[in-house]
Amino acid sequence: MVNEKAVLEIGQSGRDTLFGLYLKWNSHSSEALARSEDKLFSKISKPFKRYYVKIGKCVGNDDKIWTFEMNTDNEKVPIVLLHGFGAGMAFWALNLETLSAYHPIYAFDILGLARSSRPLFSIDPHRIEEEFVLSIEKWREAMNFDKIILVAHSWGGFLASSYALKYSKHLEHLVLVDPWGLDNEPDMADFPLWKLSAAYGVRLLEGCFSMVRALGPFGPWLIKNVRPDLLQKYNSIADTSVMCEYIYHCVNNNNPTGEQAFHRMTRVGPWPINPIGERMKNIDENLPLTFLYGARTWTSKTYGYILKECRGKDSYTEVKIIPNAGHHIYSDNPDDFHDAVLQACKVLKSNRTNN
User: Fold this and answer.
1) Which of 40, 107, 198, 225 has the lowest tally of Cβ within 10 angstroms?
2) Contact 116, 124 (CB under 8 A)
3) 105-108 and 148-153 strand pairing
4) Are residues 282 and 168 in contact, defined by beta-carbon separation less than 8 angstroms?
5) How far apart are CA 326 and CA 318, in angstroms?
6) Are 213 and 256 in contact (CB under 8 A)?
7) Is the separation of the CB atoms in 121 and 128 below 8 Å?
8) Which of these, 181, 191, 162, lies nearest to 271 by C-alpha position?
């Protein structure tokens, strides 16, 4: 059974000093992350498993990927869900059970984030991208999957697109959910001063969540006040405090090497140093490609339409706008997200190339 205990009890004794509380909070971060993840998955009624997949020497010498699986007896092509930056696989908690009714479902924490290993990545942004892509491929090999349907959100969409450029033979369909990193850096001359100041301020830090970590046990307070909208999306399965704790410990647990790697991949903004939009024109034209954008998203839809226009006439490229959704489509409007993903899953590379 899923652990239903409180996420983390702190400050039970009035004798705790602030410094002692800070150390206690951080030393228990791994346990708190596991407990908050348990609570986010506690409403799933069907059997599922979570475990570490050993991928061996990848970025570190003995890397492991924290993995979720459900309905693995289903013989259809598995759907693999890849989360975005500053997140973990529990961000898909509203979607796992519904999607698993049709396909075997897998999700995992990207290397360097959440509960997966935290190896030291390269300092070169191009090499970092290659390391993340290699970790995805090593996970696929360890799982012994020949073909997968890859559904990836935001920065995960960037990594999934890079993966498709090198390993398209293992993909049946690529579904990009409000993908980040396709466009070049915009002209920032017209940006308001406060936006420029904030962007450059973050750039000086070790990573986007440095301030959150610096606040120790008060970090969740900052998350709760900056992103209450994100927390409220999961009200149907857990109290907002649980999602708040989960986000906090995803970035606070152990050494933030994945966050540092993302920081090195970006310019001020953050915009990607090596945008992937133009490079995606080289993705195998036989690979079906679906873009899902929230109607209210801040993400640019430009390359979704560019690729739909420029890919071969026999290629399958769809751009769908999900109503009543922003950047986090899967939690803003789960029903329409599920419909769009399952519709995409009906179009497989193997079926199209065999006809």
Assistant:
1) 225
2) no
3) unpaired
4) no
5) 19
6) yes
7) yes
8) 181
